[in-house]
Recover the amino acids of this structure.
């Protein structure tokens, strides 16, 4: 087994070679993080990027929002979607554009990975709504859920043989993939996810979700609710086998600890089934925006 420092260096070098988020996306994130930003400010930034403009208009006219009339104005789309949603849209499309290619997937199935990721995003947003999180903040739960497993991408790419063995071991033991990664790869997807989040200077809550969704009790207090919500959504997707990112055997003690942290029972999630099924198809638009 190579040293942990060497393995971290290999992953860090891979992440360093990954393309940076575009100038426009970085500007969108910067503008949206200012409390004084208006829809006009965001319109001025996005209108300079015809690709991102197209993504915003495609999303607002998709089944995901089910609006009765076509929206053709970027300014109107930003007002209707809200600054936070547009920010998260820009981030989602940029990340999927950078890491959504078949060449990024060696040991994992790309289609199953993104199906799982979309399910976690949709479920996290539904849990946030059930927990009375403000509507303007729910898209952050969706994005945190959709991106939570990004750290698996460099691991399965850089250490394909070892990662395939980790997947097999987790299946054989019907246990945690995270533990198998630590044993056979020497670095887990939480650590790799944190490195990606830091490279792209993602919001701290998103970075915490990437790093701590298998240990939400270790997340900073400010983001612990979001991280625990993503952790529960991840367990939901795994238990109901909606897509797969290789972690197919959730461990009962971990599930119980998350439910206790969120003051829920497993049966409390039953009303989510219909919502998740309905939203899953609509949310596929996020994967098609970059086609």
């Amino acid at each position: 087994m190579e040293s942990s420092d060497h393995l971290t260096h290999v992953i860090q070098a891979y992440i360093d070679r990954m393309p940076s988020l575009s100038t426009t996306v970085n500007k969108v994130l910067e503008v949206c993080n200012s409390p004084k930003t208006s829809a006009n400010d965001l319109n001025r930034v996005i209108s300079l990027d015809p690709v991102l403009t197209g993504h915003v208009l495609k999303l607002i006219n998709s089944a995901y929002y089910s609006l009765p009339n076509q929206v053709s104005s970027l300014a109107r789309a930003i007002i209707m979607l809200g600054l936070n949603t547009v920010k998260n849209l820009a981030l989602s499309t940029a990340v999927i554009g950078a890491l959504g290619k078949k060449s990024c997937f060696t040991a994992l199935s790309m289609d199953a990975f993104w199906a799982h990721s979309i399910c976690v995003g949709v479920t996290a947003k539904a849990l946030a709504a059930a927990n009375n999180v403000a509507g303007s903040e729910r898209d952050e739960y969706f994005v945190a859920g959709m991106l939570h497993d990004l750290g698996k991408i460099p691991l399965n790419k850089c250490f394909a043989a070892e990662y395939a063995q980790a997947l097999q071991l987790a299946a054989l033991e019907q246990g945690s993939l995270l533990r198998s990664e630590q044993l056979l790869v020497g670095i887990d997807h939480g650590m790799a996810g944190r490195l990606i989040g830091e490279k792209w200077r993602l919001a701290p809550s998103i970075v915490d979700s990437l790093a701590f969704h298998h240990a939400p009790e270790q997340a900073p207090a400010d983001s612990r609710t979001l991280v625990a919500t993503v952790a529960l959504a991840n367990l939901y997707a795994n238990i109901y086998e909606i897509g797969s990112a290789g972690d197919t055997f959730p461990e009962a003690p971990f599930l119980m600890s998350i439910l206790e942290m969120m003051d829920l029972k497993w049966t409390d999630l039953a009303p989510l089934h219909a919502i998740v099924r309905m939203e899953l198809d609509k949310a596929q638009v996020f994967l098609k925006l970059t086609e």
Q: What stands out?
A: The CA atoms of residues 113 and 173 lie 21 Å apart.
